[in-house]
Design brief:
heterodimer; A: mainly alpha; Non-ribosomal Peptide Synthetase Peptidyl Carrier Protein, Chain A; B: alpha/beta; six-stranded mixed sheet; five-stranded mixed sheet; 13 helices; globular
Chain lengths: 81, 416
């Protein structure tokens, strides 16, 4: 899944909670107010869109700090077969 | 009982009969009772009328008996009956299996669980444990619509009402189309009472014209089998302001134990301390019942109901079943019944069910399936319901994914 598609799902999740859209990839998830529940929801929406369950690596998730990390993470996960 | 046998009616469609006639129908099907008295049997029936004929026959001759619909028989179910030594008797009286004969207890009635959480179970009862109406001093004449699955505890309870309480008419629903048969029975007039589940009512409210429901003039409404939420109590109170509305806590094993008549969800915490025939206590958040109507009559043993309860002020509320209810969201506990009750308080929501979906980082997220009163664009519906939950539910308990269904998914057990 490409980055713009992942970002639009993240922003959909943010909009549903009444929060402003993510402004830049360099923002930390904390500054963007993108919380762990939002991350989990984004994952489920990506799974639904792809029609399959994805394998999420816990160690890679723990390393996430910025919006860019989130985008890299989901891009990587959705690439895997 | 002889008077009741002749006077109480059972209505099938536009016609009515009495228990004595049903007994005669049973005798025509199964022949002399002596042949069946020496074994534990279950009558396999192909319809509602056949089920009532089997009941009248089994009761009249004090057999060791039960009833099951033919459509529920699978190899696994047959094996279950075999393992209990129960002979399956077909609609024409032929024996359908060859189990090792089990011990025979005249008067035992085999109640079936719904099998919704696995293979159905055989629960032994008797007329005494099923007839929970002997504690009522007097019941006015009523005609009860009977929507329950043949052979279930709730079905036998209603059958017991028709068999043991004077002036009680039963109007069995058509199991193939409950809503249509309920609407038809209401339209014919004469139905004054119904015992069912909250899901059945939500299904009926979606499926039957409001004017047909409103014109029915029901006087007695009982609900059980599921958690009864405030929204459905309020909806029915508004629709039937003259009706006596009550919810009953009962299970196949514990029998009917708690009757609530004050129009509020949950039950009065004072019941916990009240001495009496039926005991109620809470241990580690689980409800325990001691009742003379339990499957092992005598009322000495406490039964772990497997239901989770929580005290909130002066009320005890049901929180779901042990083991499969609570959703762990990143270490926080979300209880689907609470979330569902909140969703169903929204005026546009008819029915809601909340389940867990596995999710990274937090472990699980609550997801909701919802039936709306009127179809709505999904995005708009999601926004509407998320806004309804904001501030009222903890953030982790707000469903994150939504599915919108066209109709209430009613199971044969009348639950969802």
């Amino acid at each position: 899944m490409d980055r713009s598609e992942i970002l639009s799902i993240m922003n959909l999740v943010m909009a549903k909670r009444g929060r402003p859209a993510i402004q830049s990839e360099t923002q930390t998830t904390r500054d963007a107010n993108f919380r762990s529940l939002d991350f989990s929801e984004t994952a489920l929406r990506i799974e639904t869109k792809m029609g399959r369950e994805l394998a999420f690596d816990a160690a890679a998730m723990r390393r996430i700090e910025t919006v860019k990390d989130v985008l890299d993470f989901f891009q990587d996960v959705t690439k895997a077969t | 009982m002889a008077d009741i046998w002749r006077n109480n009616r059972v209505v099938f469609g536009a016609g009515a009969t009495d228990w004595a006639a049903l007994q005669a129908e049973g005798e025509a099907r199964y022949g002399a009772a002596a042949a069946l008295a020496a074994r534990r049997v279950a009558f396999v029936v192909d319809g509602v009328r056949g089920a009532f004929a089997a009941v009248a026959y089994g009761m009249a001759f004090d057999l060791d008996w039960g009833v099951i619909e033919a459509s529920r028989l699978t190899p696994d179910v047959e094996a279950r009956f075999d393992s209990h030594g129960v002979a399956l008797i077909g609609p024409d009286g032929t024996v359908l299996n060859a189990p090792e004969p089990g011990e025979v207890q005249p008067g035992r009635i085999t109640v079936l669980t719904s099998g919704s959480t696995g293979l159905l179970k055989l629960i032994p009862h008797t007329a005494d444990t099923l007839n929970t109406f002997d504690r009522l001093r007097e019941m006015p004449p009523q005609a009860w619509f009977l929507p329950y699955q043949i052979g279930s505890y709730a079905w036998y309870q209603m059958v017991a009402l028709g068999l043991f309480v004077p002036d009680q008419t039963l109007v069995p629903g058509d199991i193939d189309d409950l809503a249509a048969s309920f609407a038809a029975a209401l339209a014919r007039g004469g139905v004054t009472a119904i015992s069912s589940t909250p899901t059945f009512w939500r299904y009926a409210l979606m499926s039957i014209a409001p004017e047909t429901l409103a014109a029915a003039g029901l006087r007695n409404i009982s609900m059980g089998g599921e958690i009864v939420d405030q929204a459905i109590l309020d909806t029915l109170a508004a629709l039937y302001p003259e009706a006596r509305i009550r919810h009953i806590y009962a299970s196949s094993e514990a029998g009917a134990a708690i009757v609530v008549t004050d129009g509020r969800a949950g039950f009065d915490a004072a019941l916990l301390d009240r001495p009496g025939t039926i005991g109620v206590r809470i241990e580690d958040g689980r409800l325990f019942i001691r009742s003379p109507y339990a499957t092992k009559a005598g009322g000495e043993d406490w039964i772990d109901t497997g239901d989770l309860v929580e005290r909130r002020g002066d009320r005890i509320h049901f929180c779901g079943r042990v083991g499969n209810t609570m959703i762990n969201v990143g270490g926080n506990k979300a209880f689907p019944p609470d979330i569902e009750a909140h969703l169903m308080r929204h005026p546009d929501v008819v029915w809601a069910q909340v389940t867990a979906r596995r999710a990274p980082l937090v472990g699980n997220l609550p997801v909701a399936a919802v039936v709306l009163r009127q179809p709505l664009d999904e995005e708009a519906a999601e926004a509407m319901l998320a806004a309804h939950c904001e501030g009222a539910l903890a953030e982790y308990a707000i469903p994150r994914m939504w599915e919108f269904l066209d109709r209430v998914p009613l199971k044969a057990s009348l639950k969802s």
